[in-house]
Amino acid sequence: MGVFFDSLLVFILVIILSSATAAKVRHLKWEVEYMHWSPDDQEGVVIAINGQFPGPTIRARAGDTLHLHLTNKLHTEGVVIHWHGIRQIGTPWADGTASISQCAINPGEAFVYRFKVDRAGTYFYHGHYGMQRSAGLYGSLIVDVGEGEKEKFEYDGELSILLSDWWHKGSREQEVDLSSKPMRWIGEPQTLLINGRGQFNCSLAAHFSNSTAAPCKLRGNEQYAPYILKVHPNKTYRLRIASSTALASLNLAIGNHKMRVVEADGNYVKPFTADNIDVYSGDSYSVLFRTDQSPSHNYWLSATVRGREPHTPPALAILNYLPTSPSHLPTSPPPTSPRWDDYPSSKAFSHQILSLPGSPAPPKTPHRRLILLNTQTYINGYTKWSINNISLTLPTTPYLGSIKYNITNAFDAKSPPDRAPPGYNVMRPAPNPNSTYGSGVYVLEFNSTVDVVLQNANALKDNVSEIHPWHLHGHDFWVVGYGEGEFKEGDAAGFNLRDPPYRNTAVIFPYGWTAVRFVADNPGVWAFHCHIEPHLHLGMGVVFAEGVERVRGIPNEAIACGLTGKMLMRNGTR
Ligand code: C2O
Ligand code: CU
């Protein structure tokens, strides 16, 4: 008896002590709604969360659980939100991908996202249904190290920016344009935004440029007034950067300041110093910089377009050295960044990103290797993007439910091919540019190691090959190699298995390939796709399924549509 009560007492004490520092459940209540807003000096309509654009920043500690009650107040369309970079270990139904992990949340309905943020890092969230990212449905998600833990670098203060791009044409109309025959391309964004702010008709740096843009006349309280990063002199700052652009690849620089890259996509990297950094859609970084410049001035932070001939002026924010007034514009011109088509400099930057010693290391050999050929194609005269000649179309029943409950005819039973037919010339437009629609999935053996080689190619037009940043849900992957031209099996011998960066987004350069390796150890169904929203909309993605039979606890609301909806009704559980 005595022993029993003693150990009970110890048990209770342990619970009380550990809950003092233990992870929290953070409750959030969100309403998603259209709102008039001026991200630049023209008024438009954005998808806002709780009346905010960009949406509220989520801040949590590693190990916390987010309990987020979301109500869809977009009267005429569904919505879902994806937590980009959060692996959703054990909660694949909370990944927020319409038709993959859940049904779109109907107008007027609510859904609870409940998941753990298991690792510190810089992340963001965004809509993952139609083109709602382009409509402004995004925000930052920052996870601090657990209580009592320390980062592997030091800093005195922290700043955070979310980059995006903005069109004056609404996202619904953009969708229609892209889906028309012939396709009407959406064109370059009108404005680049830093934390939701940009200028279109005027320039903050007009007096430095030979362009015709008029100087901005701002009071500072406009919705489109530049974002101000306030700093004290002689300190080290951590700047968190994430890009949720729909299209633009960016280059970021801080005038007169060097940056030291320390984190990429929630993982530590071997620190290196850079004058400017490339940020592709889906990327996140932390950089450190020292406020060692003259404190009586302010400085520019700029983001410029890479990889596409820019028709969009740079985005500018102000690094404000206190106590100097933020209205005191920088006295030097905005920093220069590499030319948009200076691919050697972009490649050099990507190749510099390596993991910090002590980071997770990749298994030495893969069980399976997929080679995914990225091509721009036609289907009955509609322009599409295809992977191994299949353009992804999502089914009406979310895969997670149809696979878990063995529902037949919910999607194409045939798996897409592991590679493109041999002899495809990636340097030239395809002789037969036609492809087909498909909704098949790659079923990965649970716990197996998978290599994916993303193979770029010439687009429909001669001498055009674009940048595509690919993002994987539910996992991080090791970026084990980059190469030019066509990938050959022998290239695998040169993979970097020593210190490849561990991340969730990797870019393929024009006419090149990029190889990633990951372990299929997270039961669920996961999207892997180009993070350029119009490209995904035109079919540029694939779906992986692994260990789905092990998935437990899918909430009924997540799958109450399509064939799983019917199943729930039959079972009387709805
Ligand atoms: Cu941030 Cu599937 O995307
Ligand atoms: Cu793309």
Automatic annotation (TrEMBL):
Location in the cell: Secreted
EC number per UniProt: 1.10.3.3
Positions of the Plastocyanin-like domain: 32-144, 160-321, 425-547
This protein's GO CC annotations: extracellular region; plasmodesma
Protease among keywords: no
Catalytic activity: 4 L-ascorbate + O2 = 4 monodehydro-L-ascorbate radical + 2 H2O
Domain of life, source organism: Eukaryota
Signal peptide: 1-22
Cofactor(s) the protein needs: Cu cation
InterPro entries named among the record's database cross-references: Cu-oxidase-like_N, Cu-oxidase_2nd, Cu-oxidase_C, Cu-oxidase_fam, Cu_oxidase_Cu_BS, CuRO_1_AAO, CuRO_3_AAO, L-ascorbate_oxidase_pln
CDD domains: CuRO_1_AAO, CuRO_3_AAO
MF term (GO), any: copper ion binding
UniProt keyword list: Copper, Disulfide bond, Glycoprotein, Metal-binding, Oxidoreductase, Repeat, Secreted, Signal
Family the UniProt entry places it in: Belongs to the multicopper oxidase family.
Quaternary state and interactors: Dimer.
Protein known as: L-ascorbate oxidase
Organism in which the protein naturally occurs: Salvia splendens
